[in-house]
Amino acid sequence: MNSILTNRPLLAAEVNKVAEVAGYLWQKGWAERNGGNITVNITEYVDEAIQAMPAISEAKPIGATLPHLKGCYFYCKGTNKRMRDLARWPMANGSVIRILDDCASYVIIADQPVQPTSELPSHLSVHNQLIAKGSPYKASVHTHPIELIAMTHCPKYLEKDVATNLLWSMIPETKAFCPRGLGIIPYKLPSSVELAGATMRELEDYDVVMWEKHGVFAVDVDAMAAFDQIDVLNKSALIYIAAKNMGFEPDGMSQLQMQEMSVAFNLPK
Ligand code: 13P
Ligand code: ZN
Q1: Choice among 14, 20, 48, 119 that is catalytic
Q2: In the annotation, is 202 catalytic?
Q3: What pLDDT, on a 0 to 100 scale, did the predictor assign at position 269?
Q4: What is 145-269's CATH superfamily?
Q5: What stretches of 145-268 show up as alpha helix (H) in DSSP?
Q6: What is the Cα–Cα distance from 165 to 258, expressed in whole angstroms?
Q7: Interval between CA 121 and ligand 1 midpoint (Å)
Q8: Ligand 1 atom closest to 37 (CA)
Q9: If you count Cβ atoms within 10 Å of the first and of the last residue's Cβ in the chain, which end, N or C, has fewer?
Q10: Residue-wise pLDDT tens digits, 115-129
Q11: Whose CA is nearest to atom 4 of ligand 1?
Q12: Could you tell me if the CB of 118 is within 6 A of ligand 1?
């Protein structure tokens, strides 16, 4: 079957990164059933032939008006689709959408009429904000990492930067590779516009945010980099749990050691 990816190696490379990440999410146990979603702004790879492609779906509302998305195109995981299936067949378990000129609705253009993720309001609101800021970030990843979600069932870790400081203190790399830490968003209904609004606000200060008792949402230049930020945070949670299982409370790196990291690596916090 002809695909939008055929003879477009740069676009295919971006979608293949999503597929590779989807496989990792499944292997890690973070992607039960249809859990999680990924979207990527692929507008830079859109040529005239793509612009001329007809819609293969009805126009559907996004749920918000997002002026910076005018003329943009996104690859989106399909709603109810499995990450483990997307890993092998990204264009049967996701689709490319075009934002219409009203900036409030979209159509699917390729390869199949796969309905985008139910978390589209959050993903597209965040992409709108990234463009408005002139950010180089093009990908957003939502997933259900077991240990990080478990932490949000304890009120202490919902306080600002308590989880961030604990996670940073477990191993130097976590602060180096997730330097803005983990923002916390109190529980909101999945796929709601309220969740989208809260996600946008929290991403002003963080690259990875936690949806309480649900999962994380991360942004970065591509799907692989967004995954890496979540992966280093969850690794820290695993180190913490390993220490507790060995029967002690881990010391963690000292504030002085973490400050030294910030200076050495020129980190923002
Ligand atoms: P979708 O299958 O609609 O992408 O939803 C999965 C999910 O994790 C919702 O938060
Ligand atoms: Zn989810």
Answers
A1: 119
A2: no
A3: 80
A4: Class II aldolase/adducin N-terminal domain (3.40.225.10)
A5: 146-151, 162-168, 172-177, 193-202, 223-245, 255-264
A6: 9
A7: 12
A8: 4
A9: N
A10: 999 999 999 999 999
A11: 117
A12: yes
CB-based contact 208:217 (threshold 8 Å): yes
Assess whether the C-beta atom of 32 lies below 6 angstroms from ligand 1: no
* Helix, strand, coil abundance in the chain, percent, nearest 5: 40, 15, 40
Q: Where are the beta strands (DSSP E) in 6-67?
A: 37-41, 60-61
Distance 138 CA to ligand 2 centre (A): 20
pLDDT of 170-188, one tens digit each?
Answer: 999 999 999 999 999 999 9
Residues 6+ away with beta carbon under 8 Å from 93: 77, 78, 81, 82, 85, 86, 114
d(CA 183, CA 116): 26
pLDDT at 80 over 80: yes
Tell me which amino acid residue 172 is: P
Q: Is the CB of 93 under 6 A from ligand 1?
A: no
Q: Ligand 2 being an ion, which residues bring their Cβ within 5 A of it?
A: 215
Q: Where in the chain is the domain with CATH 3.40.225.10?
A: 1-142, 145-269
**Is the CATH number of domain 1-142 3.40.225.10?**
yes
Q: Give 210-249 pLDDT, tens digit per residue.
A: 999 999 999 999 999 999 999 999 999 999 999 999 999 9
